[in-house]
Amino acid sequence: MAKLNLLLLAVLVACAIGLVSSQHKARKLFSELEREQNRARDLDIEYGRLQLEASTWGLHSRVEKIATGTLRLRTPEPRRVRIVTPGAAR
Amino acid sequence: MNAATQGLVRLPVWRARFVLAALLAAFWVLGVRSLYLQALQTDFLQEKGDARYSRLIEVPATRGRILDRNGEALAVSTPVKSVWAIPADAELSGAERRKLASLLALERNELGKKLADTSRDFVYLKRQVSPDIAESVEALGLKGIYQHREYRRYYPGGEVTAHVIGFTGVDDDGQEGIELAHQASLGGKPGSRRVIKDRLGRIVEDVESIREAQDGRDLTLSIDSKIQNLAFGALKTAVAQHHAKAGAIIALDVRTGEVLALANVPSYNPNNRAHLSGAQLRNRVITDLFEPGSTLKPFTLALAIERGKLTPATLVQTAPGHLTIADYTIHDTHPGGTLSAAQVLQKSSNVGMAKIALSMPREALWDLFRRVGFGTAPQLGFPGEATGKLRHYRSWRPIEQATMAYGMGISVSLVQLAHAYTVFARDGELVPLSLVKTGTAASGVKLLSTETARAMRAMLELAVQPGGTGPRARIMGWRVAGKTGTAHKQENGGYAPDKFVASFVGFAPASAPRVVVAVMVDEPSAGEHYGGIVAAPVFAQVTQGALRMMGVPHDAPLEPLETPAEGEEAKENT
User: Fold this and answer.
1) Which of A20, B382, B399, B421 is the most exposed place for a label (fewest CB within 10 A)?
2) Number of residue pairs across A and B with CB atoms under 8 Å?
3) Which residue from A30, A59, A81 is facing B204, i.e. has the nearest CB?
4) Residue B34 known to be catalytic
């Protein structure tokens, strides 16, 4: 009887330690998940900001100014443009 | 002595009983108390316990982005910080106050006033602060000063797209334009969840999700920002050049009914709305009504052809240049004699048009106007769409039937006018308009026969040839068709003699139309006020650019356009 009790005590202690450690592990993993989720959100925000920046740099008025001013580009004369439609190309 | 010891040993029985009863009573009290706490008050106590470590936190949701048809961002929300305070907790020294005020760009006494009211638990010091300023504020480490995250909307397109997109308020809710119209799908719904936090404030366990956060959905508009930019630029230049009060322009895709560009002048910068006037905010394309004048003539003529009253070659007597009905006289400023129906349109003769209109029953005219969309909201899903004014034919006087034929006594918005012209551009079909990208060819309601629509296209093409009223609308490489309009503005119940609305509505290429463009310039006052001179060049510039960007094949020889000699250009009458 005493032997069985001792054995059960040992099992109980082992279970208790297991519970504590798995709880600890779960919390660690969870905080990692939380961190990654925050990172994902931050990256999404960053993406929005970059998209905004891209739009600002690529503003048509700005592109046009640089193209005609600095790069001296101009719209080709209509007679020098050939419009090709897919399928109808000869 | 003996008696005394005897007395000590022999205690009365009731004392033992008394102690026993007292102890039992104490246990009983404990039992009842524990029953009370464990069973009856358990919810309250559980809650109190949870409050020590579990927290309800908000899960933020972002507002959806607005993109143009090619995926370019037109409106994006990015997080900013709002700085707030608990006045009772904020005990700041003079130096700290000065620093905080200068960082937040507040007046010192303004800051003092906000912090003075200690009865309040929450006072915004400044909303929508940029992240770097927020960081510096945080670095000060002030007691009682807190921050929380908010979203601010940015519009990279600025004034170019201002009227289409609209803007959001300080709480990131739509206030104008598309932002308001699509608030339900763009706006995110923040969620909340219960978590367990440890001593250091880190989240260690997710207990339950109370509400999932729902991010707003992205919205792809039908607007092409390249065409939009071109349209806005051309309109702005024209408005400045002709010292006009305002201007509006809209471009439609004929096949899909999508709005490719929609711009107004004057505009505003939606990113900085400090000094806004009502005139800047007005989306004239959609909310402003005007008497269209001659741009309405093609509908009258189309009806006459549809009813078999005449063909483009039928002769109409317009001499002597005026026509009196009851006590009102219709004038032609440039009398034309006997003209064919096509020439009546080309020269824009009011007398000719009135005669054609009077040859038909008035309800037929009313019915066509109504069916092409005048007098009903265009259903773009835009806030504040004007319905226009089209009175029932039973209340028309005879003279009104004549004047309505050339666009007087009826008021429409520019979007209605452009929409109505899709009937000619699409072989007689009226397509529903859309501000959201559909990308698929739309099917419409057939209002005119294909033959009538084709005949109208040919006649409208004549109207922009030398000898017509709008030769400046022509572009090299593509055939265009369209109609000019010059109408007196209504003022105090009558027509102002010196205030005009110049307009042009047309489409191209005439052989197989792809775009409809409508331009309206309000009160041009730099000498010229004719639609053919003020509005037609804007049409030409925008149409040419749009066709090039859409890759539409040429349908006309690439030869320079001969410019009409001075005075040879026909001037329209209304």
Assistant:
1) A20
2) 67
3) A30
4) no
